[in-house]
Design goal:
Number of strands: 0
Largest sheet: none
Distance between the termini: 27 Å
Helix content: 55-70%
Order of helices and strands: HHHH
Shape: elongated
Number of domains: 1
Strand content: under 5%
Structural class: mainly alpha
Radius of gyration: 21 Å
């Protein structure tokens, strides 16, 4: 039996640790949903290519999958937003560390707190705006012109991913303020090719 891995949030008080570990679990779920969307997107594009190739040989096969491009755009947007929270926690977002690398640990911690607060505010506004946009689409019964899909359905997935990124920024703010590790290396890919 393997020993349990210690949480990066182990130094936090028990209720706060449970909250931060819960957010980390949601971020992992977020990442897996992103993987599912990417796999579905890849499958849809491969099916589109196969149908197109088969239509050149068999005249009775349709020339394309009429929803492929529309649904691919939905899946691409969901992939980006679903992967964002886990990427933030794993330390995978692009950062300019030119200044952070040259300041004292106390100044760096203060800067991380400010930057996490700024990220929370900006992503919170984006989450609110996307939720409002989604609600308006739902309320109006808006549908896609090409497929008749209710637009609010793919928008909900994108909104969910942005909300989870906002929650991860809140967790990062708390972790930075308490001096806890900001990144969970266990969420990183084991190899560059992963």
């Amino acid at each position: 039996m393997r020993p349990a891995k210690e949480s990066p949030n182990a130094a936090a008080a028990a209720p706060l640790r449970a909250l931060l570990d819960g957010i980390d679990t949601l971020s992992r779920l977020d990442g897996w949903l992103g993987v599912g969307c990417l796999a579905t997107l890849t499958t849809l594009m491969l099916a589109e290519v196969a149908v197109r190739a088969l239509s050149n040989v068999f005249p009775w096969v349709p020339a394309d999958i009429n929803i492929a491009w529309e649904y691919s755009s939905y899946l691409m947007a969901a992939t980006f937003t679903f992967g964002a929270a886990m990427t933030l926690r794993a330390g995978g977002h692009i950062r300019v560390t030119l200044i952070l690398a040259r300041v004292s640990p106390a100044t760096r911690r203060w800067m991380e707190v400010v930057l996490a607060a700024l990220g929370t505010v900006l992503c919170g506004f984006l989450a609110w705006a996307m939720a409002y946009f989604t609600w308006r689409s739902f309320d109006a019964g808006q549908t896609s012109v090409s497929s008749g899909t209710l637009i609010w359905i793919p928008q909900v997935f994108v909104t969910f991913g942005i909300v989870l990124l906002t929650v991860q920024f809140v967790a990062r703010f708390i972790q930075a303020a308490l001096g806890l590790p900001l990144e969970d290396v266990s969420m990183r890919a084991g190899h560059v090719a992963e």
